[in-house]
Structure formats: C-alpha cells, structure tokens
Design a protein that fits this description.
Pfam families: DUF1330. It comes from Aeromicrobium flavum. This is DUF1330 domain-containing protein. The chain is α+β, with helices and mostly antiparallel strands. It has a single domain, classed as Alpha-Beta Plaits (2-Layer Sandwich), CATH 3.30.70. 39% of the residues lie in helices and 26% in strands. The protein is built from five helices and four strands, in the order H-E-H-E-E-H-H-H-E. A four-stranded antiparallel β-sheet has the order 2-3-1-4. The longest helix is centred in the middle third of the chain and has 18 residues. It starts with 6 loop residues before the first helix and ends in a 5-residue tail after the last strand.
Length: 121
C-alpha cells in the first residue's frame, strides 16, 4: 500500500475541490521501528503547517476498535485542518518540506490520507 500521495493523486485532489477548508484524515500504521521517525517528522512539519495556515486538530494513538472491519490495524490517527486544498498542495510542493517527507515515508508501513469536507454544523 502506498503511504505518500502521487502527482496524479494531488491533481485529482485539486480538481475535486468544492472550495473552503479541508480536514485531512491520516490513519497511520507504523513500521516496527517507525514511531521515532514519525515523531521527528511531526515536530519538523509545524513551521510548514503554519506557513500555509494549517493546524493539527488532533493526534493520538488508536486503541480498542468497537466496530471495524476484520484486520483493522491502525496505530494512530492525525487530523490536520488546512484553509484550502490549495494550501495543502502548496505545502507538499515546498522544496524544504520535501526534504522531511522521507521521515514520514520511512516511518509508515501503511497509511490513509483522505480529505474531509466540514459539514458546517
């Protein structure tokens, strides 16, 4: 399973933009030795989030699944709010940001990265 979005993924992400803010759901399954690498990535991403107006909404380990498909095995969840899909795209295109993405890639065995559209309630 891929852990990083491709250029085609980002192009589709932008083409399906309904406008407004976006919350990115990150479901993370760490490699056996990946937690330290992801923690370093988490610390180093903060200035890049700030630069585009993004913020971490929630980050934490996952625990008991009450209702889930067989084989559900995510270790952690991360929710990050961005002012727009374009802001997310600008961040991941930043050459300095790209210098730290290897930390994330090395940390993860599997991942889900999915855009959420706020309901406005």
């Amino acid at each position: 399973m891929a852990v990083d979005p491709t250029g085609a993924d980002l192009k589709r992400f932008l083409s399906e933009d309904p406008g407004g803010g976006v919350v990115m759901l990150n479901l993370l399954q760490f490699r056996p030795d990946g937690v330290a690498s992801y923690r370093e990535y988490s610390e180093r991403i903060v200035p890049f989030l700030a630069k585009v107006g993004g913020e971490v909404v929630y980050a934490g380990n996952l625990s008991t699944a009450l209702v889930a498909p067989d084989g559900w095995a995510w270790d952690a969840v991360l929710l990050v709010r961005y002012p727009s899909r374009e802001a997310f795209s600008q961040m991941v295109a930043d050459p300095d940001y790209q210098q730290i993405t290897g930390l994330r890639t090395a940390a993860l065995d599997e991942a889900v990265l999915q855009a959420g559209i706020p309901w406005g309630v």
